[in-house]
């Protein structure tokens, strides 16, 4: 169980996340939505401790993640893998090495520095690539792959961390619809094996299709938390004061994604 309790983050006078509390049972897939600047990225980054909260706590299975330092903090970051909009692969390295990077924090410093990996780790990396139909690309440079392939490599890299949680911050915002589906299918697949997934999404239709639960933020606060079916177009209008079409177009523009082709009917 991941517990977020009264989490708050200010940047100067601006409150990015404002007293958010959320309990996420193990194995749930949670879609986080909201307009630009609602605080979605900041919330995810506080769970991973890339950003520290001003107030509040994150607990995982009873451990106060907010208080972790040094080795314990590095261990937490390994257990809580991040996926980013821009994939964050090392473009000039081959795909297999990019996936093996997921092991680096798990190993003694010296072997990490030398990028020495065991045969077992290489087999793990190949297996992770294979499950996403990417084994044949293992020796290609990362920059020869399509965006959707690169994002699946990033998920394979995350899996090598043997994470309990995957935090994905707009993982499909740079992808076309077909690649978006392969990436969301990959995330859903690993979630079904028991990994908790928190995913920031600008696209409501995707959040509805793939997530068990949707959390909507507005100005740093939770304004909706429930099953996808309860997030109707009428509810969107109620919590955001815009139509679903307007919400979709604005959210897509904020992340540089193409405008949605079909709005969901009211
Ligand atoms: N490092 C920072 N310094 C100053 N302000 C920040 C910083 N990070 C975020 N903010 C501000 O905090 C608010 C929430 O930002 P955040 O990126 O979490 O929102 P978001 O919901 O992910 O929006 P978007 O989809 O546009 O990225 C915004 O007003 C943003 O400008």
From TrEMBL:
- State the Gene Ontology terms under molecular function: ATP binding
Per UniProt, residues of the ABC transporter domain are 2-244
SMART domains on file: AAA
Listed Gene3D superfamilies:
P-loop containing nucleotide triphosphate hydrolases
Pfam families to which the protein is assigned, alphabetical: ABC_tran
Q: Which UniProt keywords apply?
A: ATP-binding, Cell membrane, Membrane, Nucleotide-binding, Translocase, Transport
The protein's matches in InterPro entries, at most eight in alphabetical order, are given as: AAA+_ATPase, ABC_transporter-like_ATP-bd, ABC_transporter-like_CS, ABC_transpr_PhnC, MetN_ABC_transporter-like, P-loop_NTPase
NCBIfam families tied to this protein: ABC_phnC
- This chain's protein is named Phosphonate ABC transporter ATP-binding protein
């Amino acid at each position: 169980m991941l517990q977020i309790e009264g989490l708050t983050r200010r940047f100067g006078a601006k409150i990015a996340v404002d007293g958010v509390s959320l309990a996420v049972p193990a194995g749930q897939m949670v879609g986080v939505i909201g307009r630009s600047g609602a605080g979605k990225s900041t919330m995810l980054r506080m769970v991973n401790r890339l950003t520290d909260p001003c107030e509040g706590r994150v607990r995982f299975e009873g451990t106060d993640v907010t208080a972790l330092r040094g080795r314990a903090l590095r261990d937490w970051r390994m257990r809580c893998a991040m996926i980013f909009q821009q994939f964050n692969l090392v473009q000039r390295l081959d795909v297999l090495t990019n996936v093996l990077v997921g092991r680096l924090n798990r190993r003694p410093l010296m072997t990490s520095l030398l990028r020495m990996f065991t045969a077992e780790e290489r087999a793990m990396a190949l297996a992770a690539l294979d499950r996403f139909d990417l084994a044949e690309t293992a020796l290609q440079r990362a920059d020869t792959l399509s965006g959707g392939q690169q994002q699946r490599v990033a998920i394979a890299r995350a899996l090598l961390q043997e994470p309990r949680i995957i935090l994905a911050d707009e993982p499909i915002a740079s992808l076309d619809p077909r690649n978006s589906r392969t990436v969301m299918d990959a995330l859903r697949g690993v979630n079904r094996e028991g990994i908790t997934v928190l995913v920031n999404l600008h696209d409501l239709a995707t959040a509805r299709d793939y997530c068990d639960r949707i959390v909507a933020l507005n100005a740093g606060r939770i304004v909706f938390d429930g099953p996808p079916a309860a997030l109707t177009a009428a509810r969107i209008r109620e919590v955001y004061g815009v139509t679903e079409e307007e919400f979709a177009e604005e959210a897509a523009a904020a992340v540089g994604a193409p405008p949605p082709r079909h709005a969901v009917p009211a």
